[in-house]
Structure formats: C-alpha cells, structure tokens
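My main concern about presentation is that the manuscript never shows what a single data entry looks like. For the editor and my fellow referees, an illustration may be useful. For illustration, here is how one protein appears when written out as sequence plus structure tokens:

***
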Amino acid sequence: MRSIRRGAYARLSSPEALWHAYLAVRSGKRRGPVMADFELNADRSVLILAHELATGSYRPRPWQLRLVHDSKPRLIAAPAVRDRIVHRALLDEIGPHFERRFIHRHFTRGPGTGVHQAVLAFLADNRRWGWRMHLDIRHYFPSVSHQRLEALLFPQIRDRRVRWLIRRVLESGERVYRSALARKTLAPSLLPRPPRTGLPLGSWFSQWAGAYYLDGLDHYVTRQLKPGGYLRYMDDFVLFAEQAAVLEDARGAIRQWLAEHRGLTLNPKHWQIEPASTPAVFLGYRISSSGLGPSRRLRRRMRERIRNAAGRGPAALRQTLVSYRGMLRF
C-alpha cells in the first residue's frame, strides 16, 4: 500500500478542514448544552485550534467520564468538543487511505456498513451453512496496544506531525483508563495497567482504530483459513462452515494469531460451535432461520430507557423513540 501523500498535517489542521470537521461533529448534537456552549464562539474556537495545531501547542482536554450499567458496567468517555473536531479532521484525512484495505465482510466502518448490514449478512450465512462459531475478544478496547497500533499505521504515514498527533490522541485516551472511575470499573485482570494500552469507548477515533486493529485478522481468516462464511463487526466476528471440525481448527488458529500479532485473547464465554439451525443473538438481535427481531435483552433495555425518557419530558421521550425506530427499521 502506498503512503499517504505529503502535506497531510497541513491539510487536516487548516481552518477549512477543521470547520468542515466541526460541522460534522455538530450534526445532530446542536440541542445539547455542551455543543450549544461551543457554538457561541465556534469560529473563534476553530481558529484557535488551527493555531495550536500549526504551532504544535495542541493539548487534548480531559475526557468526560460516565458509567453505563448495561449487561455489565461500561466506562464511556466523551472527548471535549474541540478534541472531537481534531479526531474528525484526522480521520477525514487518513481514514480513506487505510479503509481501502477493509474486506467487504467487515461492517464496522465505511459505506454500506453498520449493525443492520452485519445482522442481515449473518442471517444470509446462517441460512446457507450448517455450522457457525461466534467469537469475540476478551476486554478488547482496554487491551489494544498503542505500540502495535502505531506499527500498523505509521509505515503508511510519512508526515511526522501526523504521527505526533496520533500519539497525542492515544496518550489522552490512555489517561482515561488510569482514572479513579476506571480503576473501580475495570476487571481485576486488567490491573495494574500496562503502559501505552487502551482505547476509550466513546470517540470516533477509538471506533476507527479499534476497527482497523483487527483488519489483519480479516485477511488472515478469509485468505488463509478460508471458512465457508465470515463477517466482523468491531471485535464480534462469526465464522460459518459445513463441518464443525473446520470451525474448531479455525478457532485454534485464530487464538494463536491474536496472541502473536495483536496481544489479545478470545473470550472463552463466547466461542461455542453451534448448528446454524439453532437461534442466535448477534449485536442485540435474535436471529433464526425464520428471520430476526430484537433480543430479549434489547427489548428489556428499550422498555427501561423509554420509561426513563418519559420521566424526563416529551422532548427526551421523542428523541428516544426516534432512536429506537431507526434501530429497528431494516
């Protein structure tokens, strides 16, 4: 793969690129108090941000942390608006270059991707093959190695200032996992924290980097293991085959590849090999040979959030209903 063309940092740090990134960050968020406050002086703030990037004085602000209790406690970290703009401008510049490598069965990011597309692909393969194996990675986002991620990205990035900016973003995210709230939330096996690891949940850059970090796995599975079917959404991936033994061999090979090349381990709670004729739950949807629908956990979560939104007023209820309507519409 060719390197990103020269001048990437100058392009992404220009006021025009940052303003374009700001408009993308603002989309759908203008009613929120944080975005409304930034919008009062958006033009001046973007110019200041461009100056900081041009002079190398840019420093990310602290992330806003909150704990979400879903099936398990999750630490969600939101970067400051100005940092979201930088993340978006960075991805607008480098993202398309790396995303050309993505296989068509990777549904995390890119045109024609998303949860709905992944679920429909699962349904199609589930009807075609006799056996399936759904795998995910144990403590994926907290376990991503910055050193390994940089080794994947930096050979394609000539501009040392872009590399500097990526390191800044990664370092700011690492501090999330060293916060007091993170120490209360993380599994004991993740403590003490090894240096330079972890992507915080809640930012565009984390989602993009997490998607790209496993791109090598996609190519390994589809080019060397060659099961009957394969698809991935972030760290959830599913293999299909006509014989269960094929999937069992693939599981061992994937475990070894992840350990050697990414320093990751499979989640032993989710690596069963099952007949495709049995129903499955994938990305919140219950999928069977007859069709798909929201899983029991998703229905329970929807009821709870709709009830909570109704207590906050008509506007919050309307926003929640619109969100779930989009989630359930295929």
